[in-house]
Design goal:
- Its EC number is 5.3.1.1.
- This is Triosephosphate isomerase.
- The chain has helices at 16-30, 47-53, 80-86, 96-101, 106-118, 131-135, 139-151, 180-197, 200-205, 216-223, 240-247; strands at residues 5-9, 37-41, 59-63, 90-93, 122-127, 162-166, 207-211, 230-233.
- It is of the alpha/beta class.
- An eight-stranded parallel beta barrel has the order 1-2-3-4-5-6-7-8, surrounded by seven helices.
- The two termini are 19 Å apart.
Length: 251
């Protein structure tokens, strides 16, 4: 059985006070949930404070990005080692906004993934197609390139520390959500691809999250699909009540 994982990507929101207040508000709402892994990803400046606030809760902390070098003359970058030191257990890599706005490539995503795994972080590896790519029937070729590129050179022994998040770019922050069937189709494809790259047992154990306008109202249908193991949540994770509603998708 794959343990569901619900992750909240706070993107460029929340001051230190706002971020810790959100943890304080969220924690009691989900304290009874013991069969779902819960992760939040604050901005870099709030990681330590959020990690401290979450210490005695079920909430784990992720960073929204990292660099592939451990240290050196790389102004403005943050290494996986420093993220772990600040209290992170997870890191998001290859988010579509990083690819779209900051020049992320399959090579940089792969280098970051390897560095994060080496540092002992769990990687939330993001993949997803644009609207133009979906409309030109390129979804599966795009996903294959991104999954294969992100996992290149990653040994099977490290796959237990990788979670893949499928986020159709056309559904992020737009209010549009892939239908349950559309999401399941791509998730099943990702699992079959990982089975080809590794083995069926590794693919069966891999958690694959859906991201893209996930809300309390649509999470249950998504989570009922055979190959959807959780969600990477954007806007709805910025309010305790709505995020808790997603975490408590089982009722």
């Amino acid at each position: 059985m794959r343990t569901p994982l619900i992750a909240g990507n706070w993107k460029l929101f929340k001051t230190l006070a706002e971020a810790t207040a959100l943890v304080d508000e969220l924690a009691p709402l989900i304290s009874a949930v013991d069969d779902v892994e819960v992760v939040v990803a604050p901005v870099f400046t709030a990681i330590s404070a959020v990690a401290k606030a979450a210490e005695k809760t079920v909430i784990k902390v992720a960073a929204q990005d990292c660099y592939w070098e451990e240290e050196g003359a790389f102004t403005g970058e943050v290494s996986p080692k420093l993220l772990k030191d600040a209290g992170c257990s997870h890191v998001i890599i290859g988010h579509s906004e990083r690819r779209q706005y900051f020049g992320e490539t399959e090579e940089t995503v792969n280098r970051k993934t390897k560095a994060a795994l080496k540092a002992g972080l769990v990687v939330l590896l993001c993949v997803g197609e644009t609207l133009a790519e979906r409309e030109s029937n390129a979804t599966f070729s795009v996903i294959k390139t991104q999954v294969s590129g992100g996992l290149a050179g990653i040994p099977a022994s490290d796959l237990a520390h990788v979670v893949i998040a499928y986020e159709p770019v056309w559904a992020i922050g737009t209010g549009k959500t892939a239908s349950d069937a559309q999401a399941q189709e791509v998730h099943a494809f990702i699992r079959s691809l990982v089975a080809e790259l590794y083995s069926s047992s590794e693919a069966d154990a891999l958690r694959i999250l859906y991201g893209g306008s996930v809300k309390p109202e649509n999470v249950k249908g998504l989570m009922s699909q055979a190959d959807i193991d959780g969600a990477l949540v954007g806007g709805a994770s910025l309010k305790a009540e709505s995020f808790a509603g997603i975490v408590r998708f089982k009722g």
